[in-house]
Specification:
By secondary structure, the chain is mainly α. It is built from 4 helices and no strands.
Length: about 180
Amino acid sequence: MGELLHELGIDWRLLIASLVNFALLFFILKKYAYKPILGMLEKREKMVADSVDQSQKIEQEFRALQERKEQELRGARAEATKIIEEAARKADELKHELVRDAKAEAKKLVAQTKAELVAEREALKASVRDEVADLVVDATEKVLGEKLTAAADRKLVERSLSSVETLPAGRQERV
């Protein structure tokens, strides 16, 4: 076997030294390099896993926060809609109340104006009656040429007024 190794150009002493060096290097690397490197890789892997977990947790919290925000926003919109509807209802009620009050005030004003017109008409009739009575007395005095007594004066005025009152409505207005 020594010859075979020699023919292949392998020195068995060198081969054993190389195997010992390899075993020694393997042992040293395994003990001092491989374990620390594996430890660092495990730490890094754990750190990455923790980061992923943390990221997922943050994402879940973000989604929960976003959902809560959307719920609050929906609630605020519903509340705003409710307030707007209530304000519109109150405005409509106020409008109807104001219209009702304005109509009542207008009716009251019309009734008051009618009453004033009736009172003015009666006052005007009384004034016209007095004036007609004075004119009748003056005209009678001029025709007769003398002053009438109070009793005759009153009798003549009453007759004239009763004849004016029996006139049709259109002619009374002209007198």
